[in-house]
Description:
alpha+beta
Amino acid sequence: MPELPINCTPQVSLPDYWCMKLPDEVTWDDYYACCATCDYTEAEDVTKLLGHPNVIQNPMEEECERVTRGYRCGNPEDYQKVPEAEKEDISAKASEWRLLFQMGTVETDDYELMFGDAGYIYFWIRREDLLNRRFDRIWLILQCY
């Protein structure tokens, strides 16, 4: 990858509607009204440091917690191998995971780096590990269209 300049611009970052655990009475219209109030529009192909991920497939926090505990996440059968008693704890601990960095397609006149089919790579870290600068405990996840 060639050396490229970066331009950091602060932006509002909101969780994806599907990633939030909202009561049934909260609708898409409510979500869009909140986005408008916050002056939020989801940018395409965005690379970001911290904030909320632009989710393509599924929320990733529980996946990070399962993999950290040694469970594979490649197919539905892998999820079924997690003991029922542990699934609840995994769900609870998933909230400790934070997006550290999300990277989209990098493109210049003579170079392109794309993840899958116009996807992102996401670097996840537990909040405590971020506070203690334990960057050796990061998980990388790829999602694409």
